[in-house]
Amino acid sequence: MKMKMKMNDSLHAFDFERQFDDRVALEWFQQNWGTAFALSGTYALVIYVGRVFMKHRQKLDLRTPLMLWSLSLALFSVIGALRTSWYMFTVLTTHGFRQSVCDTDFYSAPVSKFWAFAFTLSKAPELGDTVFIVLRKQRLIFLHWYHHITVLLYSWYSYKDHVAGGGWFMTINYTVHAFMYSYYTARAAGVRVPKPFAMLITGMQMLQMLAGLSVLALVFSWKHDVHCVSTMHNITYGSAMYLSYLLLFSHFFYTSYLRRPADDKAQKRE
Q1: Phi, psi dihedrals of residue 141, rounded to the nearest 5°
Q2: pTM, whole model, 2 decimals?
Q3: Where, by residue number, does the polypeptide cross the bilayer (predicted)?
Q4: Residues 111-123 pLDDT 10s
Q5: Is 227 a catalytic residue?
């Protein structure tokens, strides 16, 4: 309680953040988090039907809608990153690193509670990224749709339990997405973005997965502490998810930026 009082005094929350009812949000997710499975199933079905529908049709350009879509997600991510990182910075400087990992006030503190809810909910509309890929007949890789489905499931599952580590997970993801969707916006607008910037974003995603694994390892080692609340199910699922992401993003980085064209030809001959 003392920590929460000090945090409230040191952080300025906007009226809409302060007035957001996190208790109603928590109750809704506790009752409806399983909806994420229905959304994931619908998403997979839409992808399949969409690809069949587009198979013998001309690809759609959709450059302007894609630019506006990416821009809206970029702005959302930038603001979310700024608000959540300010909260996490304050926890770090006033209560130390261990408390920043084990903190669960993130879900209910005036400055961050709205952004924790918005982050979790946003994983549903972010599925729309794939619609553009399907309608524009671009290459749809396993990493893309697997990542969307598992992030949605794990985010909704974690929010309902207000597990420790959430502040780090969300803040880092907001930050990476701020860069990623800004890059997508520029590309959709026809801007020639240097290749190193794309490499930087993938590198950031790989570091994000390492950070996620590290935070979960710390939560596991401190989970018997009354102030480091989580479950073995959450830690196990989260670790498996982050590890699979790390392997997939590492493979993507190698095949996209490091492997020589000669390697691709040799692989095709095999």
Answers
A1: -90, 160
A2: 0.92
A3: 33-54, 66-89, 142-159, 165-184, 196-220, 240-258
A4: 999 999 999 999 9
A5: no
